[in-house]
Structure formats: C-alpha cells, structure tokens
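so the lab meeting is tmrw and i was supposed to have these ready like two days ago... anyway. pasting both below. for each one the top line is the aa sequence and the line under it is the structure tokens. i havent really looked at them closely yet so no promises
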Amino acid sequence: RIVRSDGSWGHYAFGHEMKTLLLTLERATPVLVGSTTTRIVCRRGCAHDQRVAEQHRVVFASLADARSVGYRPCRVCRPARVA
C-alpha cells in the first residue's frame, strides 16, 4: 500500500489487480545472481551471492540464460535444483 502525505492509506498506481499480478510474477520468476569474476551463478540469498561486489554482480532470470553466457551453477545453493 501507499501511505499518503496526510498519513492515510492510498492505492497502488495501476490498481490492486495489477499489483497482485506483479507480485505473482515476482514470486514465480527465479532471480539468480552471478559474479563476473568467478562466472558462478547463485540463488539470491546464497552465502556466496552475498559476497559478490556490486561492480561484479549480474542478474539472470533463468539458469539457462546464465549457462548460455558461460556461468556455472553454485555448488552451495544449487540453482539447478527446483526449490
């Protein structure tokens, strides 16, 4: 929800249905983070992901995308496995 300047509750800019759709899409889209230095891709939140410096961070929507440009899955969080 949006809090207005007077403290009252506002509405989402594009309506409740659009916000629900966006949240559903966000949950369904796996976010993977890769390191340009190690060429390893992790699930967001992995211990290794948290150590990747911002300037070396790259985000992928799928493991297939990451593999297509030479990244390998992390051996700790195993993004190749279905959650």
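ok protien two:
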Amino acid sequence: MCNKSDHSLSTRQHIFVHIGPSQPTYADPLLEMVDASQIWDKFPNDSLKELMERGPSNAFFLVKFWADVNIRLEPEATFAVSVIFEGVEDVPLSLSTKVCSFGKQVVEKIEVSSLYIV
C-alpha cells in the first residue's frame, strides 16, 4: 500500500470510443469513431472480429484509460485496480487490462464478468 502523501492530485481522463461502422444519432453523445479493423490485432484469436460479425455492430465500445503510477512501492506491495460496471441488463463483459512500460506490454489480464444490475 502507498501513503496519501505519495499521490498527486492530477486530472483523471477516461476516453470512450465507439467501435464499428454505425452512424451516431443526434441523441447519442459524441464519441470518437474507430474502424474496428484498426484494433482487431489487439484482441486474441480474432475474437473481436468474430464478435462484430455475429453481433450488432453498434454494441461495441472501447475505454482507453491512462494512469501515471510513478510512485514508490515496497517490493512486497500490491498495486490493485477495481472496476464496477452498471447497467439495466445482465450482459457478459470481457475486460482486457494491459500494463505497458516504455511502450512495451509487460502484463495483460483478461476477465469475463457481468454487469451490476441497477
């Protein structure tokens, strides 16, 4: 664990990106559009490509999150992140977390979970 004094008060940034060919409507929030073929190689065994071919193309979103974790930790310390997804339907989610250092991936964790129903 780290002390409060180790944390800096910095701005946190979450960027939501819509993946797929569908056109947004006026009621939709403005999101960056990404052609799915640009990121297929980031998912194992063509899984994103297969999901997009089977499912509705307007149901895929990517969340990009950056964090500067340049803090001093004891060698036996644990750095953990927790997330909660909420929705009105029980939808299975696949969450891929990658840690990169100096532009190279050093760790990847893939979790499959469900939404917390509200």
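from a quick look at the 2nd one: Strands lie at 14-19, 32-34, 60-65, 86-87, 92-101, 104-114, 116-117. The radius of gyration is 17 Å. will dig more after coffe
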